[in-house]
Every structure is written in C-alpha cells, then in structure tokens.
Amino acid sequence: MQFNKEAHIARMKPAVDKLVNHLQKKGVSFQPNDENLENVILSSAKKTIKISHHSFYRYSGIAVIYSKTSENTFDITEITDEMFLTNYMKPIIEMHFELK
After folding, report:
1. Which pTM value belongs to this model?
2. Direct distance between the N- and C-terminal alpha carbons of the chain, in angstroms, rounded to an integer
3. Which residue intervals of the chain are DSSP H helices?
4. Is the pLDDT of residue 39 over 90?
5. Whole-number pLDDT of residue 100
6. Is residue 46 within 8 Å of residue 52, measured between CB atoms?
C-alpha cells in the first residue's frame, strides 16, 4: 500500500478548515502550498511561518495516546485529525503569532 498525500489531505480538510477559520478570525491567513516546496504558509501583518505538509498534515506522527489503568491494562485513545490539529498544531501556531 502506497501513501497517497492528496487523499490524506482531502480526508483532513474538515479539520483543517475548522482550524483555518479560527485563525482567520484572529488575523492569520492560510495558504495551502508555496510555489516549490510542500509547505503551508501562515501569515499575519507581522509574521509568516511555513510548516511542511509532512508536519502540518501529520503524514506520520502521534496516532494514539494511552494511560495505564492497572499493571497490565491500558486505555488507548486514537488521535483524530481534529484532535491533532486542535491540541497540537493550534497551540504552536497561536504561540508563534502571539494569539490569545
């Protein structure tokens, strides 16, 4: 099975749109691609950052979190696309742009 970047990005679109809407309300614009590299570009009046598609769209990375409930038992929670963007990427972006 080969990884399909376009299908993966399409699957994440609803969660990405939610994050982008939130950021736009705070004055941060979103560009899904730069010209030559696979980066998303986030810009405000004062700052611009580029984040690789690999990182922003979670091509690989955290997939589950777990907590130990007893000596041999764990509760496992799958990290959804929305959870990843809301709980991981959003705080990083907000910190960079000094959003409150």
Report:
1. 0.87
2. 42
3. 5-25, 53-56, 81-84, 90-97
4. yes
5. 78
6. no
